[in-house]
């Protein structure tokens, strides 16, 4: 069973007795930025895109320090 965001927010409102002011969704959410008075918050751009190159460079530096003759 898949529920939509408005259904979930309605359920939250009925169970809490008041509406949520904000709801946090993942990056896959492509709907409205406000649903029935609830602001939808999405995370910013992922930082992971920049990490692999830096990690690769650090790994290469460690390898050179451990065995400077074999690193070319």
Account of the 3D structure:
The radius of gyration is 23 Å and the shape is rod-shaped. The chain is of the alpha+beta class. The chain has one domain (5-66). The mean pLDDT is 83. The protein is built from two helices and three strands, in the order αβββα. 39% of the residues lie in helices and 12% in strands.
Brief overview, please?
With 72 residues, this protein is α+β, with helices and mostly antiparallel strands. The protein is 39% helix and 12% strand.
* Low-pLDDT runs: none
| Strand count | 3
Beta content comes to: 5-15%
| Number of helical segments with 4 or more residues | 2
**Approximately how much helix is present in the residues?**
25-40%
Shape: rod-shaped
Task: Compute the CA-based radius of gyration.
Answer: 23 Å
Give the averaged pLDDT, no decimals. 83
How many structural domains in the coordinates?
1
Termini separation (Å)?
56 Å
Q: Structural class, please?
A: alpha+beta
Biggest beta-sheet profile: 3 strands, mixed
Helix-strand sequence: HEEEH
Strand order of the largest sheet: 1-3-2
Task: Note the topology.
Layout: H1 5-16, E1 22-24, E2 34-35, E3 38-41, H2 51-66
Parallel strand pairs: 1-3
Antiparallel strand pairs: 2-3
Keywords, separated by commas or semicolons:
three-stranded mixed sheet; 72 residues; alpha+beta; 3 strands
